[in-house]
TrEMBL record:
Residues 1-27 are annotated as: Disordered. It is a single-pass membrane protein. Residues 94-195 form the Late embryogenesis abundant protein LEA-2 subgroup domain. It comes from Juglans regia (English walnut). Keywords: Membrane, Transmembrane, Transmembrane helix. Its main location: membrane. Residues 1-11 have a biased composition (Basic and acidic residues). This is NDR1/HIN1-like protein 12. It is found in: Membrane.
């Protein structure tokens, strides 16, 4: 036989059902703002990504271009290995191919290497600003101090100098950022420029030397 519930027990069950119903309603009420917040964050990030992609496709920054068009030698002393001293000046033409973006260069420095070993100290260059779709000529002077080199490098330089043709690499490195009209600008990117050149250089010669080979410089960003 089923046991009949008394008035007190029935009232207790009804109270529990009411509390359970209130708890479920409270949980549902909390879930609505959370779902709305998650939806808002998702839509915000989606719109942000679409905006960034649209801006990138519209501006699409291109690498700057560099080329060495002239060189002068003021000191090229390789007679006291393993120390050598050199002072050189290069004329470098750099072009900004972007029609909608300017380029700012920060912390530019330059040095010269031979067979992947530096033969000049690293020298700092002034900041450089590149207008949209423009060409700028810079003439960095590098060297001016003694640098220790390996025996292979010292002997190679003396042999090449005696032969009259010396292959060198001018290296420019620093940071750049692209800037569009208004407040739109990118963060800083490291730039590394390698210019391989062939100089017609004879022992003891001082002044402008002929460029026997100077292809476009390689630019890594």
């Amino acid at each position: 036989m089923a046991k009949e519930q008394g008035p007190e027990e029935s009232h207790s069950n009804m109270t529990q059902e009411k509390h359970r119903g209130k708890g479920m309603a409270s949980d549902s009420t909390l879930k609505v703002p959370r779902q709305a917040l998650c939806t808002f964050i998702t839509i915000f990030h989606l719109l942000l990504g679409v905006t960034a992609l649209t801006l990138w496709l519209f501006y699409r920054p291109h690498k700057p271009q560099f080329k060495v068009v002239g060189a002068s030698i003021y000191d090229f002393n390789t007679t006291a290995p393993p120390l050598i001293s050199t002072t050189m000046q290069f004329t470098v033409v750099t072009r900004n191919p972007n029609k909608r973006l300017s380029i700012y260069y920060d912390r530019l420095s330059a040095f010269v290497s031979y067979k992947n070993q530096a033969i000049t100290p690293q020298g700092m260059l002034p900041p450089l600003f590149h207008e949209k779709h423009s060409t700028v000529v810079v003439s960095p002077v590098v060297g001016g101090g003694t640098v220790p080199v390996s025996v292979e490098v010292a002997n190679g330089l003396m042999i090449d100098e005696a032969y009259g043709v010396v292959g060198l690499r001018l290296v420019l490195m620093g940071r750049l950022r692209w800037k569009a009209s208004g407040p739109i600008r990118t963060g800083h990117y490291r730039v590394y420029v390698k210019c391989d050149i062939m100089l017609g250089l004879k022992r003891g010669y001082v002044g402008q030397v002929p460029l026997l080979g100077s292809p476009e410089c390689k630019v890594d960003i």
